[in-house]
Specification:
With about 100 residues, the chain is an alpha+beta fold. Helices cover about 35% and strands about 35% of the residues. The chain has a five-stranded antiparallel sheet.
Length: about 100
């Protein structure tokens, strides 16, 4: 299995664990150069999958969600208003290594 596929699978597993009550990520593509993750998400109550682009950055001790772009304007607005800027602590050396390797 190619390394990119392993990275995407790991990110998808993590996200599905975090977002399970809202829906499921069916596909993810991470562009390390532009720091954008593109996801196809099946949201509960929605008939079709939604494409979501997430801009992120890695700081020394945190993973930060910078901005969102979505096919559905209301989802994009909600995420940019309430989630953009959220920081996830990665101070543990194992967490830092994994995040830097995957993202």
């Amino acid at each position: 299995m190619p390394l990119d596929a392993i990275k995407s699978m790991g990110a998808k597993m993590f996200l599905n664990k975090q977002l399970g009550e809202f829906g499921e990520v069916s596909d993810i593509d991470i562009d390390q150069k532009t720091r954008v993750a593109s996801l196809l998400v099946t949201l509960k109550g929605e008939p079709e999958r939604v494409r979501l682009d997430v801009g992120y950055c890695l700081e020394k001790d945190a993973f930060v969600l910078e901005h969102f772009r979505c096919e559905r304007e209301w989802i994009e607005n909600v995420l940019n208003r309430f989630v953009a800027g959220k920081r996830f602590d990665i101070t543990g050396s194992v967490a830092q290594t994994i995040m830097k390797y995957v993202l």
